[in-house]
Specification:
Blueprint lengths: L1 H19 L3 H12 L3 E2 L4 E2 L2 E2 L17 E11 L2 E12 L2 E8 L5 E6 L7 E2 L10 H7 L4 E4 L3 E6 L2 E6 L20 E7 L8
Parallel strand pairs: 1-8
Antiparallel strand pairs: 2-3, 4-5, 5-6, 6-7, 7-12, 9-10, 10-11, 11-12
């Protein structure tokens, strides 16, 4: 009888462990859910970042979005003179995800999505860095112009879409066919800038 009771207890324990153990399907579903985490840049907000707010109490990491950020300053120049750009570069796995530029009072002035954000961040309309330029041109009726830092750009509200100038066959594109077939959106910026600030 004693051995029979022990055997019954062992079988019950194995059965309970089997019930609590996640199946391969459950494990696969959990992994996919983690891998497919995405963010939307909307109303100037991306994760803990909000355009117009002071840069303060920003977490060092943010799950799924970035694992590091670094403050940088660069001196820019054009025919009108020189100026300093103060910004933070956010990265994930060593890839540039986005940057934020600060105004003189250290508030967040803009968020610019970069090449590493392609599978992570989209606009409310579903556009992202790496989106086909010809499709964007067709879907969004915007006026395009040439930016002196090597891109052509178009602005819709507070979103500005950039495409590398090397991927365009004219100085200022006026038709979808003037983008090379493999041209992609290279940056998307959300800011309070006016279009004239690009000149």
């Amino acid at each position: 009888m004693k051995y029979l009771l022990i055997l019954i207890m062992m079988v019950g324990t194995l059965s309970l462990n089997a019930q609590n153990r996640p199946t391969q399907t459950q494990q696969k579903t959990t992994t996919q859910a983690t891998a497919s985490k995405t963010f939307t840049l909307t109303n100037g907000k991306l994760g803990p970042i909000q355009v117009g707010k002071k840069f303060a109490n920003i977490p060092a990491t943010y799950s799924g979005l970035y694992d590091k950020y670094t403050r940088k300053k660069e001196t820019m120049s054009d025919e009108d003179g020189e100026w300093t750009v103060d910004y933070y570069q956010f990265t994930k796995g060593g890839k540039n995800i986005f940057r934020i530029d600060l105004s003189e009072d250290k508030s967040i002035q803009s968020i610019t999505l970069q090449e590493g954000s392609a599978a992570i961040v989209k606009t409310p309309e579903g556009f992202y860095v790496g989106y086909p330029a010809r499709t964007l041109f067709t879907k969004k009726k915007m006026e395009w112009d040439n930016y002196y830092m090597g891109t052509v750009f178009a602005t819709d509200g507070k979103y500005t879409y950039h495409v590398n100038s090397n991927d365009v066959t004219s100085e200022i594109p006026t038709a979808a066919s003037q983008f090379k077939s493999n041209a992609k959106v290279s940056q998307i910026e959300y800011s309070d800038y006016q279009e004239s600030d690009y000149y």
